[in-house]
Amino acid sequence: MSWASKRETTRIEDMAYCLLGIFDVNLSLIYGERRKAFSRLQEAVLQATGDLSILAWMDERPDCPEFTGFLAESPRQFARCSGIKTTASDPPQELKVTALEIDLQAGLMQLRKDGVGHQVVLDIASTSEENSLGIYMRKMGGSRFVRWKPSTLARFRPPPTKLTSIRKAVRWDARDLFDTTDSVIYDGTRDSVRKKTLFSRSPDMDGPGAARLVQDSRHTVLRMTLRCQPHIKVELHQSSPESHWDPYEQAFSCARGTGRCWSAWFNSIQIQIPGEGLKRFAFFISCFFWSSEEPVIVFAPFHETYGQHGEYQLQFALARIMFENWGEADRTISSAFRGHMLTLEEQMVFDVERRNELVVSFEKTREMVPSLCANPVLTICLNAEMRTKRR
Fold it and tell me: Among 14-23, 160-169, 368-377, whose mean pLDDT is lowest?
């Protein structure tokens, strides 16, 4: 593709048709389809080879949009890609290419940057100058993705060859093609990849609403905010179901109005206690029917008797339950805590030391957040404070 990036043809369609022999694929010649011919060529190459390096193109136009499909509009967008090589020994499993979508199983990475959420990167099993490459993408409503920041590629050092545990995040240095340094967290091994749906192209990406493509694709959003004392640190360890979790916005979203849905967070609070070191207090939050007018919010502490092993067991069980199966999620959670769940009107109290205790409470609001969604957003606010024990 990079070799053909400087070629000129009389008809736009011939830019794609003249490459059929090089890639050894067949296409029907349809003059009048213009740029769609090049999209069909990429779909045919991807379907025939499974080589994800064909997604490693860059749009260097000054007016490059923020969001695009995963397929290039022209060979010119491959001009800087001559040094890219594929490293995949086998094509992605369950690869399916349609007119608007690409369904495949592929690994994801998450980049932390400047205190915002995690930037999601698709691992395309390709390298350039001994660095692995990935593609920035954003999750739309539900479990579909669009390409984000198409003017650049994520570039990072290859992860260690032995990754045996999903629960132990492996960190290494990363930089994109413009030398922006980030910290990368690998989200699972190649044996633990999950199905992803990528928009190859969409008419909405060329219209006046393209700038709000992600926000307008969401019917409703659920998020959690924090209101804590400065010395109290809250960490999110896992969110379920993963299919509707947006790591960048740190929120759940769904694409259509459905009252039968669920979500869950696994969290912990860490406090430095003088003379005793760091203490960890784990707890669980779940919200049912959060896209309806009357959501049900429950939470519970992971007591010492429950143990970290039981906490991991619940994480694994919920990770296998789909977004729509709220009944199964409800039974699993109720069984894990044996009915000892708290409601929104109650508080969690943790014994920190002889004189002090940690009090955790929640409150919910619905408010307009245009950067997240066109409709009101359900916000669960976590309040955590240390206070002297009452005698």
Answer: 160-169
CA distance 212 to 197: 19
User: Does residue 212 or residue 34 have the better pLDDT?
Assistant: 34
Measure Cα distances from 299 to 243, 252, 266, 344 in Å. Answer: 22, 17, 10, 8
pTM for this structure? 0.78
- For residues 121-130, give the mean pLDDT: 81
Backbone CA torsion sign across 334, 337, 342, 344: negative
Structure-token pair, residue 212? 């709000």
Number of H helices, E strands in the chain: 6, 23
Instruction: Please write down the long-range contacts of 73-77, taking CB distance under 8 Å and 24 or more positions apart.
Output: 73/35, 73/38, 73/39, 74/15, 74/35, 74/38, 75/1, 75/4, 75/5, 75/7, 75/15, 75/19, 75/38, 76/5, 76/6, 77/5
Rg (CA), the chain: 24
Under a CB-based contact definition with an 8 Å cutoff, are residues 42 and 54 in contact? Answer: yes
Residue bearing tokens 């930037």: 119
Query: Which amino acid is located at 22 in the chain?
Result: I
CA distance 272 to 203: 53
> Do residues 110 and 184 make contact, with C-beta atoms less than 8 angstroms apart?
yes
Bond preceding residue 241 cis, omega within 30 of 0: yes
Residue 221, helix vs strand vs coil:
strand
DSSP string, 262-279: EEEEEEEEEEEETTTEEE
Enumerate the domain spans of the chain.
3-212, 218-388
Alpha-carbon span 118 to 187, nearest angstrom: 11
